[in-house]
Specification:
Helix content is 65%, strand content 0%. With 71 residues, it is mainly α.
Length: 71
């Protein structure tokens, strides 16, 4: 039979990386976050990302990453 395949959206990937970045945008996760925002910033569901970032307590980190990405 066919197994289950889990597919993540860019928004969910971004949120996971924000959660695991440990408030540090200079580490691997942080650099990935900034690259994702630079690459996909114009196409992200910003309301979804902001709502969930707030729930995860990473809104300030998201704001700083957006600033660094120039999004």
């Amino acid at each position: 039979g066919l197994g289950m395949v889990r597919v993540s959206t860019i928004e969910d990937l971004l949120l996971a990386k924000l959660e695991f970045a440990d408030a540090d945008l200079d580490g691997l996760q942080g650099r990935d976050i900034v690259r994702l925002l630079f690459t996909y910033g114009g196409t992200l569901d910003e309301a979804y990302v902001r709502r969930h970032a707030e729930g995860l307590g990473v809104s300030a980190l998201l704001d700083e990453a957006v600033r660094r990405a120039g999004s």
